[in-house]
């Protein structure tokens, strides 16, 4: 076996480990596949069939009133009667436990929501994994990160009709593929200094999810060097459930080439 073969084997194993971990997160008993409804809170009290309590929100934040025999576990403490969550920050949330379920109380696009997550939800129970292209080293592309002078607030749409998300874009990533130059607006990633890129391409709606895929990028080097590994282009939760509020890519983040790498359309 040559050094090149060893490198390829290690690359394929690393990808397989990443893909397996991503599937495990999806299949978690309280992951996105376990969500049974998406409920938009208002000042009007509401009850939901898949969550205990009567819920409402106002300028002081979300409250729930639990009836006789109803309780939640919040932060390890048993709660009955009236409970005030207080204001929840944008993209923040609190998980309240109800039996074997988790009741997610969160804020998305300026709106407070309640999303119950039940392990026995059929979507989760029948989950059979995520189809993907075979890993291909040709889709590991060197690129350069170019920061903006100041982060740019960027408004994008959502798969939830009428909802908008606002993210600070710290810069963009530029790269070359088959003699063509491309540029993608980048948002902040999960790890400090890392980047997150939302994009579509010529496979979107054909072999990959139509609305978006996401690519996580490690923190740039001192010279701005980054690596775009499109083999790790992943579906967002909205590819699997109608109860997600995922952002859409900025308009400029459509690639006119077919990125035949990464995760494909979920199994129907």
Description:
- With 268 residues, the chain is mainly β.
- The strands form 3 sheets. Strands 1-10-9-8-5-6 form a 6-stranded antiparallel β-sheet, with no helix packed on it.
- The longest helix is centred in the first third of the chain and has 24 residues.
- The chain is globular and about 65 Å long.
- The mean pLDDT is 95.
- It has 2 helices and 16 strands.
Please give a handful of descriptors for the protein shown:
268 residues, mainly beta, 6-stranded antiparallel β-sheet, 2 helices
In DSSP terms, counting alpha (H) and pi (I) runs of 4 or more, how many helices?
2
Class derived from helix and strand content: mainly beta
Distance between the first and last residues' Cα: 40 Å
**Overall geometry:** globular
Mean pLDDT: 95
Question: How many whole angstroms does the radius of gyration measure?
Answer: 21 Å
Helix content: 10-25%
Order of the strands making up the biggest sheet: 1-10-9-8-5-6
Number of strands: 16
Uncertain stretches = none
The amount of beta strand, in percent, is 35-45%
How would you sum up the major sheet?
6 strands, antiparallel
Return the string of H and E elements.
Answer: HEEEEEEEEEEHEEEEEE
């Amino acid at each position: 076996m040559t050094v090149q073969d060893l490198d390829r084997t290690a690359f394929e194993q690393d990808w397989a480990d990443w893909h397996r971990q991503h599937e495990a997160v999806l299949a978690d008993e309280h992951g996105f596949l376990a969500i049974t409804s998406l409920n938009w809170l208002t000042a009007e009290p509401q009850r939901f069939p898949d969550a205990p309590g009567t819920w409402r929100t106002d300028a002081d934040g979300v409250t729930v009133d639990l009836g006789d025999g109803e309780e939640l576990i919040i932060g390890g403490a048993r709660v009955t009667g009236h409970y005030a969550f207080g204001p929840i920050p944008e993209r923040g949330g609190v998980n309240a436990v109800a039996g074997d379920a988790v009741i997610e109380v969160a804020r998305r696009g300026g709106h407070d929501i309640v999303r119950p997550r039940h392990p026995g939800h059929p979507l989760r129970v029948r989950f059979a994994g995520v189809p993907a292209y075979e890993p291909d080293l040709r889709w590991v592309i060197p690129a350069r990160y170019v920061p903006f002078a100041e982060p740019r607030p960027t408004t994008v749409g959502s798969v939830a009709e009428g909802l908008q998300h606002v993210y600070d874009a710290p810069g963009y990533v530029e790269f070359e593929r088959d003699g063509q130059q491309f540029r993608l607006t980048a948002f902040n990633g999960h790890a400090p200094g890392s980047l997150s890129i939302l994009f579509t391409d010529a496979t979107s709606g054909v072999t990959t999810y139509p609305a978006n895929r996401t690519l996580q990028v490690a923190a740039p080097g001192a010279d701005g060097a980054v690596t775009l590994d499109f083999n790790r282009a992943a579906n967002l939760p909205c590819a699997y459930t109608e109860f997600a509020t995922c952002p859409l890519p900025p308009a400029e983040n459509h690639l006119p080439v077919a990125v035949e790498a990464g995760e494909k359309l979920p199994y129907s």
